[in-house]
Prior knowledge:
The structure holds two protein chains of two kinds. By secondary structure, chain A is of the alpha/beta class. Helix content of chain A is 43%, strand content 13%. Chain B has helices spanning 79-83, 87-103, 111-126, 131-145, 189-200, 203-207, 211-228, 286-291; strands at residues 3-16, 20-27, 31-37, 55-62, 68-78, 166-168, 173-175. In chain B, α2 packs parallel to α4 (131-145). The radius of gyration of chain B is 20 Å and the shape is elongated. Chains A and B meet through α7, β6 and α8 of A and α1 and α2 of B. Chain A: Keywords: DNA damage, DNA recombination, DNA repair, Metal-binding, Zinc, Zinc-finger.
Amino acid sequence: MYEGVVQDLIDELGRLPGVGPKSAQRIAFHLLQADPADVRRLVSALVEVKEKVRFCEVCGNVAEGEKCRICADSRRDGSAICVVEEPKDVVAIERTREFRGRYHVLGGAISPIEGVGPDDLRIKELMTRLASGEVTEIIIATDPNLEGEATASYLARFLRPMGLRVTRLASGLPVGGDLEYADEVTLGRAFEGRRLLDA
Amino acid sequence: MPLYRDEAIVLRTQKLGEADRIVTLLSRTQGKVRVVGKGVRRTKSRFGARLEPAMMVDLQCYEGRSLDTVTQAETLASWGDVLARDYTTYTAATAMLETADRLTEEREPSLQQYLLLAGALRSMAEGTHDPGLVLDAYLLRALAIAGWAPSFHDCARCGAEGPHRAFNLAAGGTVCPSCRPPGSAAPAPETLRLLAALLAGDWEVADASEVRHRREGTGLATAFLQWHLERGVRSLRLVERRDPTADPGAGQGAGQGAGRGAGHGAGRGAGPVGPGVPAQGQVTPLRVEAQA
């Protein structure tokens, strides 16, 4: 146990996800030895992120204004919406540079065992966005696990009757892996989603 | 015993750290165990897909101080993949998994609960019966294995031969007029016959039952479960029930996807080779109808 503010800092750092007591102690002593300007920059970044960042009123992504960077960009394709669970999924898809449409962040996946039902997600907001008639395709990019698949099933049931093209991200073999190590579920889905080779 | 091997059904998973998961399992020989799946959330994980809820796996684990670690996993049955394609079966299956989690203790062998859960998940994935009926049958039988078998015919207090009309949760089922405590329910005789059939596995009677009796039976079965558990089962609140009268094809939705590689629906199947068959077309959920 350390005294006063040092212990307070270790305790606060230890409350962060993935930071145990040893890691908290290491970070605290790193900060003690760091240049005061670096520490001030970190402090101002922490304060600013809490003051400035909120959720986009359109898609639910993190934003510094009323709309996020993607919703505010008029060059993005408004006819396609990619539905994801969390804001970090938007970043992952943006890194691919394959998708030029807009996003909708649900804020999680349906998980009855955790007490999360459809009403706890931003599904109503998605339906409101579709009312304009501009959107023609919905790409469901929830996680490829049980909760993500069930959420996709739930969404598809509402979206299909609306005449929209509803697609799900393909599941299959990771690039750079060996086929023999693939599990049956993943390999089965890879077969399901196989594609024609262009001549 | 640093390394051990067992068959198990995955009950639930919780995120741990950067890419790990704590996996709660109901194993054949050791009862409920909690293990760590290292790196299973990474896309390149060798067995991440095998440690999803409702999967039956052959596991090899390494004993740890507090939690064991999975070193190998082989799929024995992948019901979760099929169940998640239909929202109704997904919610019912989740309620079964949570109930199994609540009714079993860590490291206390519970072979009967294991076999019951395996049978119920298989039945639900095959889609041979209405998922709501399978869930209710599972709840009643799981309670019976746990030592809380309800009575739907004879008096639960004095044993007087039935049938009796009154039903009382605290008494343990139907009660005769002389044992009947104040505030007892008076369900329809058909409902009690349905519940007795579900407990005994008489599917002919159960499948032929009417919707109103199923609804009443569901209320009694879930109330009986909640009565005996200290905390409620959260998943039950979100279970979606089908109305078999609303659509002649209801009750077979999940079965379409039971064989892997067949036409699959629900959010997938729009791939370039072969169109998907929308399994959801056969489902008419009660709650969704109300919203639509």
